[in-house]
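[User] I have long wanted to understand how a fold can be written as tokens. Those tokens are not coordinates but codes from a learned vocabulary of shapes. Could you go through the record with me and say what the backbone is doing? Thank you; the sequence and its tokens follow:
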Amino acid sequence: MDFFELVKNRRSLRKFSDRRVESRTVEKILEAALTAPSSRNSHSTRFLVVEDKDLIRHMSYMRDYGSAFMAEAPVAVMVMGDKRATDLWVDNCAISATFVQLAAEAAGLGSCWVHVEGREHVKGHPEMGDAESYLRTFLPIPEECGVECVIAMGYSPYEERKPRPEQDNSGKVQWLK
């Protein structure tokens, strides 16, 4: 599949089959993600791969909205940035996370981004802490790293994908010649 077809076909997947994802497949995905461009070539992005079902289930409670689906994912890849390396660690992580998702698609896996950075643990209740603080209570997140997101991934349980909804892109691109 060529790149443009891959991008066109990629969809967020929030349901996963029970099929195990081979460690070598995840390694290939992360090898690709480690080639992502970064601010001033800082390569500030770090990854934490979680395959333990109990830990993934525990991670799914990081937010009271938008993260519960990941409880059944066979793999969760936490995307973190070394804050000492650059003030643009969030941007670098976002680029790397996109590479993870595109590489997962190329490897035949589905994925979905679960945002962490700046998200409350309980929506509307900042006094309850944030998603990152919750994750830090049980995961070995380096002190110098901030957490941008978690990419839940695995094989799709569906025979066929839903077609991508039509999107009106008129007015979204401007040309100056």
In short: The mean pLDDT is 95. The domain at 15-154 is CATH 3.40.109.10 (NADH Oxidase).
